[in-house]
Structure formats: structure tokens, C-alpha cells
Amino acid sequence: MLIAVIVSVVVVGGIYQLIKPPPSRRCGITNGPPVTSPRIRLSDGRYLAYKVRGAPKESAKYKVIINHGFFASKDTYIPVSDEWLQELGIFLVTFDRPGYVESDPNPCRSPKNDALDIEELADQLEFGLKFFVIGVSMGSYPAWGCLKYIPHRLAGVAFVAPVINYWWPSLSSDICSKAFSRMPLLEQWRHRLIHYFPRLAWSIQRWLSFPTMHSIMKNNPKTFNKNDFDVMELLSQVPAPDKGKIDQQGAYESMYRDFVICFGSWDFNPLELTNPFPENSSSSVHLWMGREDGVVARDLLHQVAQRLPWIRTHEVPYAGHLFLHDKTLCEMMLKSLVLGGNTPF
Q1: 103 Cβ partners below 8 Å, 6+ apart?
Q2: Closest CA relative to residue 42, chosen from 125, 100, 112
Q3: pLDDT digit string (tens) for 107-120?
Q4: Distance between CA 225 and CA 97 in Å, rounded?
Q5: Which of 21, 34, 192, 229 is 20–30 Å from 57 (CA)?
Q6: For residue range 209-222, what is the model confidence (pLDDT) as tens digits?
Q7: How many beta carbons lie within 10 A of that of residue 220, not counting itself?
Q8: What pLDDT digit, counting tens, does each position of 132-188 carry?
Q9: pTM greater than 0.90 (yes/no)
Q10: How far is CA 37 from CA 55, 94, 123, 289, in A?
């Protein structure tokens, strides 16, 4: 009997150690990475690092906050000049989402909490009542959270190549199944584990690498199109201040939590959201997608557009997944968000 108890304790202890998340290396603490960027302190004591560009805040007509994508940061390349931003009157803010680079991890991350972080960032930077939000790729789920939890603070929203959760209620199961089956088998299992068994998934993920732009390009180059490769060539020539820093506080706190939240169970159904601007034609929600995007399931984006007809949908014929970094398209997206009007797509 005693031996059985001892064996049980050892097994349970081993399982706990296996699924136990590693300690984070928060910036600014002893033996942690240094703080090199301006940060705000949130009401719960966490810090968010941010970067500003464009028109002076005091004279800017439009305040825009960008949520970067997976394995990225506040230094994500936005190919517009400060002069162009100043001409349009745009005060542009990018920030490290929780756990990335120099923003403290948040063990309670969710679309709601991330939306409230954005609201607090806007308030501490004295944006005023209304501001614009852009969600890029996996950074789209905080933007959905903004539509749900702080619609009264929004002047407009844009989703750029947004990643869609395959388990959202109301999505067609047939379309989801077909889109899901097109993923590499390893990615299908990764998504299933993260959705149904997130703690167990971490123990397995420790021996696997997260998919990055470079690993996808190596293992499945057909994921990217010509426009994507042109963008990659451009990015290779652009300084990368966040190189080697993106997951410096730990992959668990940055990339892994991103996967768990994006593809986990949400406490609301985005396809049941209502138009936050029913009486204001100058404010709008935009969904931008590339017709040749091999990363995002476009079938699901089309279904989102059909279910939420108040979202202005723009499908760029020649674009892949990385078109945020295309100067012409980036300027077009910012203009359509803050100025309204029609686009060629």
C-alpha cells in the first residue's frame, strides 16, 4: 500500500512538473531583461510598453492604436512616413501586447482583458473619448474584444488579415472542417490540443517549435504568395529593434498564451455583435483580406463578412498575408479607417 502511495505521488508530481509553466522573466526585475521603452503602469500593476509616431498628440485629429500580430511587437514595420502621418493628422501608437518584449505578462489574458488594457492605454496617453483600433493577424482578437466591451470608446476598427477561431459558435461546421483540413497535420493537432487541453498542450509544445514566418516558409513555402515574398525581401532590409527580444520573457507568456486565447473558448460570440456605429456614417468597421492569403482561412473570413454585413470588407486581389507591410496598401487602410470613403477593393 505504501509503495502504491509513493508511486502515485511521484507520478502526480511528475505530471505537475510537466505541465507547470516556466517562470517568466519580467523586464526590469533582477536578472530580467532591461526596460528600454516608455511604459505605462496599468491599474493592476502591470506595465505596457508602447511607441508613438506621427502628428503631435495635442494637434492630431485621429488617434490610432495598432495590435501587432503573432511573434511581433510594437516595432512591427508600418511602412508610412511620419510626414505622411502628420499630413493626415494621425497620432499612431503601437504597443507590446502582454508578455511580448517589454510588456508584463498577464496570466488573466483574454479578449476582454486585452480590450481593457487598450482602453487604459488610451486613457493614460490622454486620447480623449474616441480612438481607432487596428488588429493585425492574431492581434485581431483584442480588436474583437474592443467591439464587445468598449464600443462606446471606438471611432473605428480595422481587421487586417485576421485569424479566425475555428470554434466560434455560429460558424458553419462544414466550412470550418474544410478549412481546418487544409492545415498541415501537425498544426491541426496543435490547434486541437490548445483548444481542448491547453495545459497538456504546453507540455507537448515544449518539444515543438511555434510556427513563425521563417519556419512556415521553410516547411510550406506555398503558404506565401509573390507579394508576401516581396514584403519579406523588404523586411530583411529594414532595421529590427525587436530582434531577439520578442519572446525574451518566455515563449509561454507570449506566443503560447496567444494561441490559447485566440483558439480557446471565448465568453462571447463575435458573430452576434451588433454595429457599434448604426447612426454614424463617418465611423466604421473594416475587414481587410488578401485573396491569396495562405495563412488565414479566407472561407471563414467570407462567412464573417456575410454574418456581419455592417463590416466593410476589402479583398485585395494580389495580396497574401503580409500586406500590412505594403506601403500602398497600408496607406490605403489607414486612410479608409480614419477618413472613410470607398476603396478599389
Answers
A1: 39, 46, 47, 48, 49, 95, 96, 97
A2: 125
A3: 999 999 999 999 99
A4: 28
A5: 34
A6: 666 555 555 556 67
A7: 15
A8: 999 999 999 999 999 999 999 999 999 999 999 999 999 999 999 999 999 888 889
A9: yes
A10: 20, 12, 19, 32
Enter the C-alpha cell of residue 335.
486612410
The DSSP bridge partners found for residue 219 are none
Q: State the cell numbers at 212.
A: 513563425
Which residues are paired to 135 by β-bridges?
67, 159
Q: Among residues 134, 108, 95, which one has the least CA distance to residue 45?
A: 108
CB-based burial, 119-153: b 16+ in 10 Å, e otherwise: bbbbeebebeeebbbbbbbbbbbbbbbbbbbbbeb
Q: What is the 3-state secondary structure (H, E, C) of the chain?
A: CHHHHHHHHHHHHHHHHHHCCCCCCCCCCCCCCCCCCCEEECCCCCEEEEEEEECCCCCCCEEEEEECCCCCCCCCCCCCCHHHHHHHCEEEEEECCCCCCCCCCCCCCCHHHHHHHHHHHHHHCCCCCCEEEEEEHHHHHHHHHHHHHCHHHEEEEEEECCCCCCCCCCCCHHHHHHHHHCCCHHHHHHHHHHHHCHHHHHHHHCCCCCCCHHHHHHHCHHHCCHHHHHHHHHHCCCCCCCCCCCCCCCCHHHHHHHHHHHCCCCCCCHHHCCCCCCCCCCCCEEEEEECCCCCCCHHHHHHHHHHCCCEEEEEECCCCCCHHHCHHHHHHHHHHHHHCCCCCC
- β 90-95/47-54 pair status: antiparallel
State the Cα–Cα distance between residues 120 and 7, nearest whole angstrom: 49
